[in-house]
Amino acid sequence: MEKLKYLLLLLLIPILPLFNACGEPSSKLQDSFDITINGKTLTLQDEKIIRLDELSIENGLTVNVEENDFIVSANYYNNSQSDAAQLNLNQAFYQVEITRNSFLQVKVEDDFKNKIETTIYLAPEDLPRYEAQGESVGDNNYYFTTYQASSDGITEPETYLMKVSGKGELLYYKKVQGETYDFQKVITTDKKVRYLYIQSDRELFNKEDYGVNASLVYAKVVVLDENYNFVQELVYDYGNGEISGVELHDILYLNDNHYIMCTNDARTLSGEDIPSYMQGDRLQNMYVVSCQLHEVKDGEIIWSFDSMDYPELYAYYSTEISDWTEEYIDYMHFNSLCLSNDGNLLVSFRNISGIMKISRQTGEKLWLLGGAGDEFNLEDSFGHQHEVTQLSNGNILLYDNGIFGEVSNSRIIEISVDEQNRTAEIVKCYNLDLASFAMGSVTKIQEDVYVYCYGVPIPQMAYFAEMDFSRDVVNFSLRLIDFNVMYNVNYC
Q1: Is this prediction's pTM over 0.85?
Q2: Distances from the Cα of 61 to the Cαs of 171, 258, 326, in angstroms?
């Protein structure tokens, strides 16, 4: 009988590991295992290398694992195998930096000596490199995109959204297919946090349908929530089943159901419709891009503005009329908008070097400041400006690119405007180091302290800075090493 018990025990020994201490069967590791890193689920496989295309570390780095019978470990490495830091699973780890070479080593093992070991790089190999110096005096972060136009005009480039702290730490990035513009944070009218960016989409909106120079119509606005999860995409809906891409430069996002957007429409003017001061005795057709603004609330259009309702604007185009060709001409070129202090709209039109005030009740033009159509007798006017903002004291803040070829550098200017008496005066002016042919931005964060982005300076470099002009000190600066253009920077 004792021999029989001993024999049965020998037969049971090989299968004892199949049971845990409670007498229940143990789990056996399969070929893959799912974990969640900062809200994103990843499937691990042995000896697999994963490179993330999007990551936020504002609230630390967390590897979440569901309860199971496996042994799971995760180590963080900044640059090499020699600097491991053990992560506590399901808890935030804050001593982390996003670089091309930083990575996690995640290991999963079962009782049968099966294992999965995966390397997870925190960024792609082409994550943009940058040099940052100094520290911001404010508490906000910098938001920008890497600007990279396709070399052939057809292939969509891959670009990045980037959020950098006031100390130069990369807090969030997202790799995006296509040109991206104007990455920004918004606090909505109902107190929600939203992140926006404008993304080209040539499959939906083919610019060739609109003419060579009418390339500002093939985009959509992408809206993310406070955790960078997708909320919605915005295009312009005409209400008859037809949609249009939005203009690439800017949008005023009030909440998820209320926003003001810009679209363009390529149109042909017949000779008889063209003002004589533009064409003289010539009667050939002219091809133009009209600028249209629309306020949309709960799916309904409250009002619209169309630049072609004001034919006098043609004459304010800041390029010589002799340069007009048979290609479509973007004679207005919208690039920025903001709410005025009285609740109407201020809009920057680069190609007429003007700031227009538009009624949010009717969509009518109320006045024009700057350029050939200036109604305020402004001396020392600006040219090809970007990023209009009205400050709390009523001054209008602009990034003045300067009329290229006539100035040696770009400027930050504040303009005091008396709307009742139609007078205006530049009350603050700060000259920058370089002339900026296009793009650019400025934000005021304290008295005499501004964040500005050069846009397309000469010589070209992708650069922005926070400058204290009262002390002539750069508090913070950042330069993208492998790029020579930066559309704008938002500080919020």
Answers
A1: yes
A2: 11, 34, 55
Instruction: Note whether 481 and 132 are within 8 A (CB).
Output: no
CATH architecture of the domain with residue range 131-491: 6 Propeller (2.120)
Q: Which CATH class is domain 27-121?
A: mainly beta
Task: Enumerate long-range contacts of 35-41, CB under 8 Å, 24 or more apart.
Answer: 35/63, 35/64, 35/65, 35/72, 35/106, 36/63, 36/64, 36/65, 37/61, 37/62, 37/63, 37/64, 37/104, 37/120, 38/62, 39/227, 39/229
Distance CA 238, CA 301 (A): 9
Distances (CA, A) of 15 to 23, 31, 112, 113, 415: 12, 21, 11, 14, 83
- Residue 296 is encoded by which pair of tokens? 């949309």
Stretch among 2-16, 128-142, 338-352 having the lowest mean pLDDT: 2-16
Residue 259: both structure tokens together: 């926003």
pLDDT reported for residue 404: 55
Distance CA 185, CA 144 (A): 11
| Nearest-angstrom CA–CA distance, 331 and 321 | 10
CA angle 10, 16, 18 (to 5 degrees): 145
**Positive or negative: CA dihedral 48, 51, 56, 58:** positive
Where along the chain do its domains lie?
Answer: 27-121, 131-491
